[in-house]
Design goal:
This protein is mostly helical. 71% of the residues lie in helices and 3% in strands.
Amino acid sequence: MASIYIEILKFGKNQISTKESGFKKEELTNHLKVLGYGDNDLVNIQYFLDNAFVLDTSPPNLYKIRLTALEYLIDYDELEEARNSSRSALNFAMASLIITILGSVGAMYMSHIQINSDVTINRNQFDLLSSDLKNIGSTLKITNENVDHVSAELKGLRGEVKTEILRMESTPKLTPKN
């Protein structure tokens, strides 16, 4: 149950839209008694009425909520809404954390089972692996042969380059005529 003061403000706010746009003290006390407040709770009601409401002295002598009291009630409602949203967000976060933990534990359990179980390869899988290994072996052999061929070609080119360099060095150099 909300504070009696909050209930009084809510009652005053709801009376804004009535025909008289106010209420009598007796209407308020009856409303509070319906909500479950006793006579002991209603002792200081006049002090609160004097601070949060204005008594219209013209008949029928109705209390009308002050603008500042209405602002306090709006602030209170916004605070309550923020608290409820915060609780909801916390509940969602906790639920997602629990789901994440359970998923992680499940994954670890399944990994443990797979690590400790025997590996079985049927004949088709073995034949497939075997043919793949043969293909890889033949590809490596061709690659090695290509590397050897390129290496031999480079050696031959190196020899030709050295020969050409020696020939150029042994040729007499021409000097320009002036």
